[in-house]
Design goal:
Peroxisomal Thiolase, Chain A, domain 1; single chain
Length: 403
């Protein structure tokens, strides 16, 4: 089997505008969650925002792509590079703005039945002068963010845009690893980006009763729910042979992954966690690992009542009590489709620096796990990252120091 390694990481989150800043804030126990409300019709609430206004999907992705390539020592054009960049929301924020603009235009015309015409700039995420442009709308279709990234780096190979709810980031990395292992590519830029701070996303999660009122406290007895966050993490994945040929630095190796579905409910995890357990077992088997080989688990840890409980049961059933566990969502917020990608980035940094990242927001642990309360030095050679998405989509990936 072809070995797949990570040679570059680009990351932007509520914690910081790049990987190093976000990591330093994380291990210092800081949180990027603040009280915000960019939409006047909604009440203020805790959000993990990068700036004072919602992130622009296209601009955010461009930045993360640029950071990843720079970190890998690569420069466009990269015609043979594959692209696998996912998002669970994609350009939903732009679609909501388009719908509001159409409504405002129709109201301004006195509801006379005249079709509203508008132009929209995806790059600026702002409504423009009223002259219709089909191209602007096409640029906001769900897969076009990955296509735009391919244009940005001059990639003429395979482009994929997976959507798997909160499991999207790990799904994308797994797909990219398969492209390299099957010989279709030697290099792929992969991961996920999310800009979910929109009125519909906020009110939808609020109606579900999933949003926290004060902050995100994963695995805490007094956890309240998730906090929405913006961000993205993209990786340069290469065959080990190519990475060594160009003497690239290597963060770690992707050993294997497990991908399953509950086939149970739209937003409630299967109570026994059977499919999630199957994903973990798949990942371990494909990676030629046993539960005792794992030094650290980056948990999904949404700080919702059900997720944290079922995830804790899963870990307790499969792993020894000595395995360290943390979720970084108390620091970044829940970046939905990008959350698994952020988790992989932080896990690779943990292996590089031999530091366990803390479970920020945890004060009163509810579960009998070795939850990391504060960053600490530890021997970390092999890591698992978990992502569990709505619809029962389960994704687990195994990372290791390069052998």
């Amino acid at each position: 089997m072809v070995a797949v390694v990570v040679t570059g990481i680009g990351l932007v989150s509520a914690l910081g505008k790049n990987l190093e800043d976000s990591w330093q804030q994380l291990i210092a126990g800081q949180s990027g969650i603040r009280w915000h409300q960019p939409f006047s019709e909604l009440e203020p609430r805790p959000l993990g925002m990068i700036a004072k206004q919602p992130a622009h999907m296209r601009v955010l992705t461009q930045s993360v792509v640029t950071f990843a390539l720079k970190d890998a020592g690569l420069f466009p054009p990269l015609p043979d590079c594959g692209v696998v960049i996912g998002s669970s929301r994609s350009y939903q924020g732009l679609w909501e703005q388009m719908a509001r603009q159409m409504r405002w235009d129709t109201e301004a015309q006195g509801h006379k039945g005249t079709e509203s015409r508008f132009q929209f700039s995806p790059a600026q995420q702002l409504p423009c002068s009223p002259s219709s442009s089909l191209e602007d709308w096409l640029e906001t279709l769900p897969h076009m963010n990955a296509i735009a990234a391919a244009r940005q780096i001059g990639a003429c190979g395979m482009v994929l845009a997976p959507m798997a709810a909160c499991a999207t980031g790990i799904w994308a990395i797994a797909q990219a690893a398969l492209l390299i292992q099957s010989g279709q590519c030697q290099r792929v830029i992969a991961g996920a980006v999310e800009a979910p701070i929109t009125p519909l996303t906020i009110t939808g999660f609020e109606q579900m009763g999933a949003l926290a009122k004060t902050g995100a406290y994963p695995f805490d007895l007094y956890r309240e729910g998730l906090v929405l966050g913006e961000g993205g993490a993209l990786f340069v994945l290469e065959s080990a042979e190519l990475a060594h040929q160009r003497q690239a630095k290597v963060y770690g190796q992707i050993l294997g992954f497990g991908l399953t579905a509950d086939a149970y409910h739209a937003n409630t995890p299967e109570p026994e966690g059977r499919s999630a357990i199957a994903a973990v077992k798949q990942c371990l088997e494909r990676s030629h690992l046993s539960p005792n080989d794992i030094d650290y688990i980056h948990a999904h840890g949404t700080a919702t009542l059900l997720n944290d409980r079922i995830e804790s049961i899963l870990i307790q059933r499969l792993f020894p009590k000595s395995v360290a566990v943390s979720s970084t969502k108390g620091a970044t917020g829940h970046t939905l489709g990008a959350s698994g990608a952020l988790g992989v980035a932080f896990s690779l940094m943990a292996m590089k620096q031999q530091i366990l990242p803390p479970c920020v927001g945890l004060s009163h642990p509810e579960f009998d796990l070795d939850l990391v309360r504060g960053a600490r030095q530890s021997k970390i050679q092999r890591v698992l990252c978990f992502s569990f998405g709505f619809g029962g989509q389960n994704a687990v990936i195994a990372l290791a120091q390069e052998s």
